[in-house]
Design goal:
With 107 residues, the chain is an all-alpha fold. It has a domain at 21-76. The protein has helices at residues 2-11, 21-31, 36-43, 47-61, 66-75, 95-106.
């Protein structure tokens, strides 16, 4: 049990990790439940390249396996699963929209 807790604590790190766009794509596909072979087919790259990406991602995120990686990705907002952990950014109104909002509140 202590080993499990140590692994969970390790993946709870609050140090930001920089992943490339491709690595983020791979994390998303891992989180969606695809195998490395399926990820390779979807991204049109070799399975060996996916294996390398996964290895690099696990190292960068200090996670030991795919489950810990998905947990890390959820904690850091890197993935959105079934509309859970999704935070769309608020839209910034254009000048015209701002004017319309102001004029309608004055009336």
């Amino acid at each position: 049990m202590q080993r499990l807790e140590a692994n969970m604590t390790q993946s709870d790190s609050r140090t930001p990790v920089s992943l490339s766009e491709r690595e983020l794509q791979v994390v998303e596909l891992v989180a969606s439940g695809l195998t490395n072979q399926e990820i390779a087919e979807k991204l049109e790259i070799s399975k060996r390249t996916v294996d390398n990406h996964i290895s690099n991602i696990l190292t960068k995120t200090a996670t030991d396996n795919r489950v810990a990686l998905v947990r890390w990705a959820l904690q850091w907002g890197k993935v959105c699963l079934d509309h859970i952990n999704c935070c769309p950014l608020p839209l910034i109104p254009t000048d015209d929209e701002t004017e319309a909002i102001i004029s309608s509140s004055v009336e």
